[in-house]
Amino acid sequence: MPRITELVRRVYQYEQRCSVETAYISNVLLLLAAVVLAINTFNNSMSTPGLYIFCLVVAAASAATALFLRRVHNVGKATHFTSALFLVFGLACLYFGANDGFQTLWFFLFPFVLLIHIGLPSGIPYCVIYGVCASLLFWTPLYQYTAYAYSYDFRFYYPVFYWSFFVLVFVADLFYKRYRIEQEQSERRMEQEVADTVRDAQALMLHSVTAISRMIDEKDRYTSQHSQRVAEYSRLIAENMPNRHFSQQELDNIYRSGLLHDIGKIAIPDAVLKKPDRLTDEEFATMKTHPVWGRKILSGLEFLPGVALGAGCHHERYDGRGYPDGVSTKDLPVQVRIISAADALDAMNSNRCYRSHRSKEYILGELQKGRGTQFDPEVADVVIRLIENGQIKIDSETPAGKEADA
Amino acid sequence: MKPFPKKPPRIPEVILSPYRDRKISFWMKVTLIFIWWFWMLAGVIYRGPTHHIILGTMIALLGLDIYYSRKAPRPRATICIFALLALLNVHLFASGQIGYFSIFPLLLYCSAIIFILGIRVSLAFNAFLFVVLLCYLRGPGRDSVLPIYGEHMLVRFPYLYVCIVGIGYIIMFSIQSYWVEKAQEQEVLAQRIRTEKAKLAETSFKVITAMYAALSARVPGIDQHCTHVAELSRALAEKLNLNKQACTDAYSAGLLHEVGAVGLPDDVLNTAVLNEAQFEIYKTYVTRGEKIIRELQIADTLADAVLHHRENYDGSGYPSQLAGEAIPQLSRIIAVADYVDRHRQRGESEDHIRQRLNAQSGTRFDPACVIGMLEIM
Asked: Residue A45 has what pLDDT?
């Protein structure tokens, strides 16, 4: 029993939120109009002229409401008005007992019309009022005051059947709406699941960069810091490129590309990577393999566009004399040229284990010299401008102190 | 609530739609029984001819149907029982046992079957019943029912019938079009869930492969060991009847269990026999690996599995000295797989490895994992 009350309560609240299903109400009204019209056409001999005209009016009103219902903005009010009208009509029929009482049988339709498509909150009052009035009129001595002398049969069974139809439709409505509530919940769950999965996939893409850069961090703290700076320089350069506009996503990818460009160094033995002196030719050859390793490691991550290319080609040059493949960066996306410039810039602007960083003049000179040979002239110009207006800081003031740290 | 669909499903599709919401059907049957029982009660109060025998039979038949189809729908049995019920209702109507109102049980039955049987089946029933009704009211049966119902009822009842049953169909149509529409929407959603899940799995596989590639670049020769451990772990997870996701996780965790080794210095990595100090450094690879995997944010199961794969079942392992069930199951699986592959690579015989596993079952390894692994080997 409490479960049923709970169900009724849930359905009631649900239907308060629902809009009226206009299309179906129109269908119901059209059907009513058609039937009333048919009765009048085929059986007019059996009714009084007054009833005949009244039925015609009812049919016309139903049809008109059906047709105009779509344009009515406040469907709720319109249905309330019509229901009230039918209720009054129904009570009048009960009193007059037209057509030997058959007219009252039409109001078995009340629950069918009102409960399911209009909903419990607005349908129940009319159904219950009519049912209670009918029961009172037929089951109490009040029946003596009706205009038509109903038989005992009629008085006894009319309310019985009215309430039977009412219960039937009421239960159908309850379980139909319960089904709708459940379906909407499960749909929400499924939508949530889709959203969660999409969010997870995006988070994974994002965090995979951090996780992989963490691997460089474990291997070599210096490379990790270097990567961080290259990533920031690259993004700064990309933002300041004239004639080009990068979307936020492209900027993010340039940043990630910078972060991962030296991942290949993970394969270089510590003896070479952390050697404080100049490298021998053999060691330098080992060192030169790191872009190849980088490309190999990142080649599967095509959801991070350009990252593998950035790792594989950041030592290529504009004139094609770089390594590992000696291709010209002219033919590669601009992102690669940006990263290669940012990498060179940070190499000059930081303390390496074998030397301290260079002065501002030296760096500017190198950039000028490499303009069109090592660097894309456009990118080099941007870097020079950024250094000159101070957006890229060159620590030329305290080279001695830095040297001591190194 | 969503607005009513602008483009409702096509009409034939709705009418032919299979019956989806068993609850409506069940509760409508219960309601019918309740209503019939209510009529019996009314018949007791009513002083006059009653229809108790027919109503009792109908209740019994419907109860039988509810009992019979309580677990799974049995459409054929239900249709047979409802055909019998229809005959009983027609009999009730034709014999006029409760007078003027004897026709209404039939009307109520006709509208109830719309909800109980669905549009398709109930249309056949209702068409038949309407013809029977017309035969009595307008055709050859007219004389037998005229004294019971009177002129008005005979002339007008078909209109009432069409109205009530027609509205019943309009209602059922809206219910069934809701079924169809929801089924379509949920199919689309389920499809999206599948594709998004597949995409996520693919992405995470790629990330794990990239990390594995980085590890192989750092520690030459480790890739073979990791692949073997991954495959053994997955096989063991399948043996232990873990779910599909857990088996995939076992494979991934196997691939990545040594990922922390990227952070170890060269001298530790390249020395075969470690001294005390080196071993202390070596042991950090599990926490290093865990930190790296933890960065992925959505792979905490893998991170935990990697962190604890050097724990022993009796609590003597590292890094956290967990024991027994406190060690994540994936870690216990990887521990066994790792052990087996390490010893295979040292060229030890399978028998010897089996013996060693058995000897350390319950101390170093989870006995369940050992049993599974022995079956696989």
From this structure: 57
Closest alpha carbon within chain B to A26? B170
Which bin fits B48, alpha (ψ -120 to 50), beta or left (φ > 0)? left
Of the pLDDT bands very low, low, confident and very high (cuts 50, 70, 90), residue B81 is very high
- Determine whether the interchain pair B196/A179 forms a contact, defined as Cβ–Cβ distance below 8 Å: no
SS3 label, residue A355: strand
Interface probe for A, chosen from B164, B178, B245, B287 (most Cβ of A below 10 Å), is: B164
Residue A375 pairs with which residues in a beta bridge? A371
Contacts of B175 in chain A (CB under 8 A): 176
Start-to-end CA span in chain A (Å): 81
Bridge partner list, A355: A352
Write down the pLDDT at residue B148: 85
Instruction: Describe the crossing of helices B75-95 and B104-137 by its angle, rounded to 10 degrees.
Output: 70
Residues of A in contact with B192 (CB under 8 A): 194
CB pairs under 8 A between A and B: 239
Chain A touched by B206 (CB under 8 Å): yes
User: Out of A250-264, A274-288, B116-130, B331-345, which region has the weakest mean confidence (pLDDT)?
Assistant: A274-288
* 3-class secondary structure, B321: coil
pLDDT in tens, A86-106: 888 888 888 887 777 777 888
pLDDT value for B49: 66
User: Among the ranges A101-110, A258-267, B271-280, which has the highest mean pLDDT value?
Assistant: A258-267
Gap between the Cα atoms of A129 and A151, Å rounded: 23
pLDDT for the residue numbered B112: 94
Placement of tokens 């068409």 in the chain: B127
Residue linked to tokens 């933002």: A239
Q: Is B151 on the interface with A (CB under 8 A)?
A: yes
Q: Which of B111-120, B226-235, B280-289 has the lowest mean pLDDT?
A: B280-289
CB contact under 8 A, B214 and A303: no
Tell which of A266, A283, A295, A296 to mutate to test the B interface (max B CBs under 10 Å).
A266
Report chain A residues whose CB lies below 8 A from the CB of B4: 19, 21-23
Of B46, B163, B297, the CB nearest to A109: B163
Residue A233 has a pLDDT of: 92
Residue environment code for A260-273, b if the CB has 16+ CB neighbours within 10 A, otherwise e: bbbbbbbbbeeebb
Q: Write out the two tokens for A404.
A: 């001591």
More confident residue, A153 or B371: B371
Query: B147 CB near a chain A CB, below 8 Å?
Result: no
| Mean local confidence (pLDDT), A209-223 | 83
Per-residue pLDDT tens digits for B39-60: 888 888 877 666 788 889 999 9
Please list, residue by residue across A138-148, b when 16 or more beta carbons sit within 10 angstroms of its beta carbon and e when fewer do: beeeebeebeb
Contact call for residues A294 and A261 (beta carbons, < 8 A): yes
The partner residue sitting opposite A297, judged by closest CB among B196, B204, B213, is B213
> Structure tokens of B290?
């865990």
Residue B272 burial by Cβ neighbours in a 10 Å radius (0-12, 13-18, 19+): exposed
pTM, 2 dp: 0.74
Name the closest residue on chain A to residue B190, using Cα atoms.
Answer: A190
CA distance B128 to B135: 11
Q: Which candidate in A31, A197, A302 is best for mutational testing of the B interface (most B CBs within 10 A)?
A: A197
Look at residue A332 and give its three-state secondary structure: coil
More confident site: A19 or A183 = A183
